[in-house]
Write a structure and sequence with these properties.
Elements lengths: L1 H29 E4 L3 E4 L3 E9 L5 E9 L5 E9 L6 E4 L5 E7 L11 E10 L3 E3 L2 E9 L9 E8 L2 E7 L46 H9 L3 E2 L5 E2 L1 H16 L4 E7 L8 E7 L7
Parallel strand pairs: 1-9
Antiparallel strand pairs: 1-2, 3-8, 3-11, 4-7, 4-10, 5-8, 6-7, 6-15, 11-12, 13-14, 15-16
Length: about 280
């Protein structure tokens, strides 16, 4: 009798081990790790939230991109939101890059204190490891110069559960993605500006492969100030670049450009979404 019981126990243990192996393998295939920290499952809706703080002036324009891997993540329809910006443009049909542009001299945005800059919602397609990162081409303050004091952080959420909080967002590798253009903004790896980062000098490391544009500095010196029609001083470089990034975001990116505009007349202040088809040269 004891021998029979021993055999039965051995069979049960062996069966448990055999079943546990494929279950463990399946669980591994079903789990996705984002930015080496957040662990989510296939089918989850993940929110990547980018926060900004410590600005000494208000923002009047920016040109940036959110970068992700379409093999692992799918942008949810109407999944990009910038709650503090009215009338921003983004392209959701541009592969692994979401270009986003905005400018408004009359309605600048204040980020002197930490606030949500943008959020993007993704559906998890499969397990493995992936990254969501950012790239800033240009960002200008109300004094018409590039932003020098700032602190970027990010959160990752599934529903209301916060998996990552107040971490430094990864900077996209512009040496691998040709569409990530370099402008006046320097993408520092610590997520902070040159004026407020504790990492001074050479220790304040910029994104790998970033090229310092000496020509840009020379242009700034040559066109530093002109007199506008009303007699006020304006930095023409700032105006030209803001205008260029605005037009670049509309005309260069192919596919569907989405404009998000706040409806100030509605009681619930919901966003209106309009789709515009961008024509290429052959179709004009």
């Amino acid at each position: 009798m004891r021998k029979v019981i021993s055999v039965l126990i051995s069979v049960i243990i062996s069966s448990s081990v055999l079943f546990a192996v494929p279950l463990t393998a399946y669980a591994a295939e079903d789990e996705l790790t984002i930015n080496k920290e957040a662990k989510v499952k296939t089918g989850d809706i993940v929110t990547f939230r980018l926060n900004l703080a410590d600005l000494k002036e208000q923002i009047i324009g920016f040109d940036m991109s959110l970068v992700y891997d379409t093999e692992y993540l799918e942008l949810v329809e109407d999944g990009v939101d910038l709650p503090k910006f009215d009338g921003y443009f983004y392209n959701s049909n541009y592969g692994d890059i979401i270009p986003i542009v905005w400018t408004s001299i009359n309605n600048p945005s204040d980020f002197s204190k930490k606030d949500e800059f943008l959020s993007a919602k993704f559906k998890v397609l499969k397990g493995g490891e992936t990254e969501i990162s950012k790239w800033i081409t240009d960002m200008y303050g109300s004094d018409m110069t590039y932003i020098k004091s700032y602190t970027w952080t990010y959160d990752i959420l599934v529903g209301d559960e916060k998996l990552v909080s107040d971490k430094v967002p990864p900077v996209a590798d512009n040496t691998k993605l040709e569409d990530l253009k370099e402008g006046s903004y320097t993408n520092y790896l610590d997520g902070m500006g040159e004026e407020n980062s504790p990492n001074a000098g050479d220790k304040h490391e910029a994104a790998s492969g970033l090229r310092v544009s000496e020509n840009y500095t020379e242009i700034v010196e040559v066109t530093k100030y002109v007199k506008a029609g009303n007699g006020s001083s304006m930095n023409t470089t700032g105006i030209l670049i803001i205008t260029a990034l605005f037009l670049f975001g509309i005309l260069i990116v192919s596919g569907v450009v989405i404009i998000k505009r706040k409806d100030k007349n509605s009681e619930d202040n919901e966003n209106e979404t309009e789709n515009f088809e961008v024509l290429d040269e052959e179709s004009v």
